[in-house]
């Protein structure tokens, strides 16, 4: 039979074997070979591979092109197909017994671009493992632009597709780019820097295990599981990026980072460590972020430098009571190899740099991180937490990269010293909220209505910066939005609404209006609350059937939807359950604290003081797992609440505060005596007052000549949030009446919009004005708006590095103008542009007692400087003006100089790093000459030449008040610097 007829007769079978895997790789590999042999032209290749077209259509087009080219092309096609297909050839499919190409082709490699074609299959094989490195090299050498790189790195492309796209782009760029790429590949192969990822040297069983692991992770990660999987939402459809920032200041990184930077080198502070910590508050999206990383790795769309990825849940590790070796931990809790376990484990030990572990929820372990018990033998058995801690600190399997998530409260100094870097996950940005809501609601009209309602209720909008609360609001938008005066104000309000939402959907016919769930469902709520409270107290978040029986949980209780089956990765475990989210467990635990008659009177005081609740609060037998653990390590449970227990105890206390507020008091009167509710309310109030006084007493006495300041201790913000949840002005007044400081510092305290709302509620009751420092948080525009109620009591506001834009500034200045006490503001390292300078100009014109304006490291240009100049001409009070790190240039400097020449109050002016040249310096020399108050002028890191400096020297001869002009890193030769420094000592180079 002719080869051409063989292709035609087997067309259906050929299409099946090319497309049955669902991957385009076989079709693309065959066309690579034919393209390299010159059998396909570039036009043929482009007609076959049409982006967005179904795989079967592309495969049919390939067969059509080959068939029409004749006998020779069909023969080469079958030879290529034979190379591409696996060794296990499908039954009923045959190749010609003897065939040879009648034409003798001479390889033509006269150009580098032609070489990219003739060697395409091998180049794709090599490049797919080092696409990022090649792109970086091409970008650095100016052969590629950033847009070129982004187009190639599209997540929807597999590594081999990225490699092919890279080759196509290089060919389009021409000979120089092709030559550069070929030299890069050759140098990399010679030096060994281009990794083949061991894919050609690892065993077949390893590759099978890798495929099984990818398949398992893909199946586990494709649907959103963070919120209990109440609806089967595809992770691809719902995932929204949260705000990721480095915990430590990195000079090379400004602003947020991306997912790929978590395991990358960006922000590394300890090269010897292997553990990356992702920290964030409850509900900030830590688990979902890890789930996204798992899915991307499973699809070979990210983390390609790691051959194996093993995911662990610390919540599930809590239930592992027996001692395990590291090997048993690895395979039992993730994915068990079908064969050759020892060989695969040996590879992991020999190549730790190719392995990635993730541990979700370190704060949910029963034990705080400790480096006391060292273990380095991977076959030695030990308690699970000992294995985990030794992995984190690097004693066990040094070199394996670990990504660990935790809430900030569990991050101890002992843990921090073992970290490679810490990444902060700060929830959704305003655009993230918009994106999530639109993804959650398939109907654009509903999404638009939800967003419109959110923007009219800024308190609720602030809550939505927490992804878990954004999810709740999206689920319960009908109950939560458009409620007028009854709209939710606190986190407790939101959780009460979602509980009502669940009960309403459980019994839609029982009531046409709102369900009085606290009456109709009191018994199941109490049973769920008892289970939740016992779990919180015992650091237990996964419950067995026996645990449910202990609290009399029924199938009807389970059907309510708050308690769902846990997605345990191990097939050897019996069925177990967990709450939708840990915050939901805390809420039900708080309900139990408020309503239950079985708890000691000491429960609430111990809850707020974070003391051990086990002895006084749990009269009944606890869960089997917890009891077994208690026998194993009694001493660790006898201590006061550890760092890992603190976050959930604090959240439970916060909910208890809200539930005992006067607003919600009536909910419980039908099931609990009023005297008992009043007693518990008084207990909470007393605990909050006592806690605040404890913080105030810790304030050190000021140094002589300085004003008294308070740097918030851990727990201070939590207490303020509890006071806000109670919505009692009298409690806030009582607490603030005892705070007497001039400056309140809350830097690096995870202050977001929710915390700003609570701060404003409490701080507005201060007796004396205070300076409020909120640097390095996530206040944002919504948080700024939440702070407005306390602006009248602020004499200064520091908001460095808070992702604030012109929109937030417009509202802040409109309020500040009305505040007599407000005199200073610092907003450097934000996202301000020229649009905000009109507001600041109005501020300078209106407030003739304003003394300090610092806007460094923003995006202000000459136009913004001109706007500021209009305000400076009128202002008679400003002493400090900081505009460093902007782009005002000569024109902006000239505008400022014109406004400041006759000024009599300005003492300090910073224009560092603004692209100012000699023209701007000459204009500023008039200020130096004529301004009688100026003492310091900062012009470092500009473009000033000798001419500009000569003008400044001449001006200094007429003004003895100026103490220094800083001119480092300008356009001056060394000899010019030495000469002018001798001529004028006040010039600092």
Automatic annotation (TrEMBL):
Its localization reads: Basolateral cell membrane; Cell membrane; Cytoplasm
**Per UniProt, what is the membrane topology?**
Lipid-anchor
CC terms in the record's Gene Ontology section: basolateral plasma membrane; cytoplasm
Question: Any one Gene Ontology biological process term?
Answer: regulation of apoptotic process
- What InterPro entries does this protein map onto? CARD, DEATH-like_dom_sf, Leu-rich_rpt, LRR_dom_sf, NACHT_NTPase, NLR, NLRP_HD2, NOD1/2_WH
Show where the NACHT domain sits.
Answer: 274-410
Its chief place of residence is membrane
One Pfam family per UniProt: LRR_6
Q: Which of UniProt's keywords are assigned here?
A: ATP-binding, Cell membrane, Cytoplasm, Immunity, Innate immunity, Leucine-rich repeat, Lipoprotein, Membrane, Nucleotide-binding, Palmitate, Repeat, Ubl conjugation
The record's GO molecular-function terms, alphabetically, read: ATP binding
Q: Which residues does the UniProt record annotate as the domain CARD? A: 1-83, 114-187
Q: Which PANTHER family match?
A: NACHT, LRR AND CARD DOMAINS-CONTAINING
Family, as annotated: Belongs to the NOD1-NOD2 family.
Q: What is this protein called?
A: CARD domain-containing protein
**Organism the protein comes from:** Takifugu bimaculatus
């Amino acid at each position: 039979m002719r080869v051409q007829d063989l292709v035609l007769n087997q067309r259906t079978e050929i299409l099946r074997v090319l497309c049955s895997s669902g991957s385009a790789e076989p079709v693309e590999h065959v066309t690579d070979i034919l393209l390299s042999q010159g059998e396909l032209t570039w036009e043929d290749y482009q007609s076959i591979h049409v982006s967005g077209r179904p795989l079967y259509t592309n495969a049919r087009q390939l067969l059509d092109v080959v068939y029409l080219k004749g006998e020779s092309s069909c023969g080469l096609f079958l030879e290529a197909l034979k190379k591409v297909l696996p060794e296990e050839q499908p039954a009923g499919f045959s190749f010609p017994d003897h065939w040879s190409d009648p034409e003798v082709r001479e390889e033509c490699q006269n150009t580098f671009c032609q070489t990219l074609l003739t060697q395409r299959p091998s180049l794709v094989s090599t490049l797919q493992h080092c696409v990022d490195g090649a792109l970086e090299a091409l970008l650095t050498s100016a052969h590629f632009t950033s847009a070129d790189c982004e187009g190639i790195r599209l997540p929807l492309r597999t590594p081999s597709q990225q490699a092919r796209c890279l080759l196509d782009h290089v060919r389009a760029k021409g000979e120089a780019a092709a030559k550069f790429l070929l030299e890069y590949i050759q140098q990399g192969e010679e030096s060994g820097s281009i990794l083949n990822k061991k894919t050609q040297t690892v065993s077949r069983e390893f590759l099978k295990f890798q495929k099984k692991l990818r398949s398992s992770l893909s199946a586990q990660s494709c649907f959103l599981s963070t919120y209990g999987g109440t609806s089967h939402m595809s992770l691809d459809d719902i995932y929204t990026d949260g705000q990721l920032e480095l915990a430590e200041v990195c000079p090379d990184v400004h602003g947020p980072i991306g997912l790929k930077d978590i395991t990358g080198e960006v922000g590394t502070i300890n090269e010897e460590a292997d553990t990356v910590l992702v920290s964030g508050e409850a509900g900030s999206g830590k688990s979902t972020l890890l789930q996204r990383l798992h899915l991307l790795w499973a699809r070979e769309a990210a983390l390609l430098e790691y051959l194996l990825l093993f995911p662990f849940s610390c919540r599930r590790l809590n239930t592992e009571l027996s001692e395990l070796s590291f090997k048993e931990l690895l395979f039992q809790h993730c994915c068990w190899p079908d064969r050759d376990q020892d060989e695969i484990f040996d590879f992991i030990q020999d190549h730790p740099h190719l392995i990635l572990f993730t541990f979700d929820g370190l704060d949910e372990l029963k034990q705080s991180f400790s480096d006391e018990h060292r273990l380095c033998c991977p076959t030695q058995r030990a308690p699970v937490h000992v294995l985990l801690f030794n992995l984190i600190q690097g004693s066990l399997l040094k070199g394996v990269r670990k990504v660990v998530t935790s809430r900030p409260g569990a991050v101890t100094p002992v843990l921090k010293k073992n970290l490679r870097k810490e990444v902060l996950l700060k929830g959704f940005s305003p655009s993230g909220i918009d994106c999530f809501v639109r993804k959650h609601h398939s109907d654009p009209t509903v999404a638009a209505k939800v967003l419109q309602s959110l923007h009219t209720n800024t308190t609720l909008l602030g809550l939505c910066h927490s992804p878990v609360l954004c999810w709740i609001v999206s689920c319960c938008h009908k109950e939560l939005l458009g409620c007028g005066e009854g709209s939710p104000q606190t986190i407790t309000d939101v959780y009460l609404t979602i509980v009502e939402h669940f009960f309403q959907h459980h019994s839609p016919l029982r009531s046409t209006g709102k369900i009085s769930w606290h009456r109709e469902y009191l018994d199941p709520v109490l049973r769920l609350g008892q289970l939740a409270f016992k779990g919180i107290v015992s650091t237990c978040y996964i419950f067995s059937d026996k645990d449910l029986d202990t609290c009399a949980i029924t199938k009807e209780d389970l059907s309510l939807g708050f308690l769902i089956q846990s997605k345990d990765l191990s097939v050897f475990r019996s069925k177990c359950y967990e709450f939708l989210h840990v915050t939901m467990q805390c809420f039900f635990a708080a309900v139990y604290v408020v309503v239950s008659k079985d708890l000691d009177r000491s429960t609430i005081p111990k809850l707020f003081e974070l003391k051990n609740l086990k002895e006084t609060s749990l009269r009944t037998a606890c869960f089997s797992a917890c009891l077994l653990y208690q026998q194993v390590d009694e001493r660790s449970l006898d201590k006061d609440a550890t760092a890992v227990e603190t976050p959930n105890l604090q959240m439970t206390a916060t909910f208890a505060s809200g539930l005992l507020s006067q607003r919600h008091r009536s909910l419980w009167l039908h099931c609990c005596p009023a005297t008992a509710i009043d007693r518990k309310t008084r207990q909470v109030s007393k605990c909050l007052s006592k806690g605040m006084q404890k913080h105030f007493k810790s304030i050190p006495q000021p140094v002589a000549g300085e004003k008294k300041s308070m740097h918030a201790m851990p727990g201070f913000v939590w207490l303020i949030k509890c006071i806000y949840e109670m919505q009692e002005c009298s409690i806030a007044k009582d607490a603030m009446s005892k705070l007497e400081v001039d400056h309140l510092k809350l830097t690096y305290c995870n202050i977001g919009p929710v915390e700003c709302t609570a701060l404003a509620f409490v701080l507005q009751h201060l007796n004396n004005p205070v300076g409020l420092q909120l640097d390095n948080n996530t206040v944002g525009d919504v948080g700024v708006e939440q702070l407005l109620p306390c602006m009248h009591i602020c004499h200064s506001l520091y908001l460095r590095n808070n992702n604030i834009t012109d929109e937030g500034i417009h509202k802040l200045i409109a309020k500040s103008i009305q505040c007599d006490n407000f005199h200073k503001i610092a907003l450097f390292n934000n996202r301000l542009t020229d649009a905000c300078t009109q507001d600041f100009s109005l501020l300078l014109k209106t407030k003739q007692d304003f003394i300090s304006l610092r806007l460094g490291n923003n995006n202000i240009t000459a136009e913004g400087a001109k706007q500021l100049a209009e305000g400076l001409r009128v202002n008679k009070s400003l002493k400090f003006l900081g505009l460093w790190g902007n782009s005002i240039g000569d024109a902006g400097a000239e505008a400022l100089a014109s406004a400041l020449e006759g000024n009599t109050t300005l003492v300090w002016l910073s224009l560092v790093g603004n692209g100012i040249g000699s023209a701007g310096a000459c204009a500023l020399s008039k200020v130096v000459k004529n301004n009688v108050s100026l003492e310091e002028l900062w012009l470092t890191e500009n473009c000033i030449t000798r001419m500009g400096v000569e003008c400044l020297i001449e001006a200094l001869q007429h003004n003895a008040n100026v103490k220094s002009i800083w001119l480092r890193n300008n356009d001056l030769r060394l000899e010019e610097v030495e000469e002018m420094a001798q001529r004028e000592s006040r010039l600092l180079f």
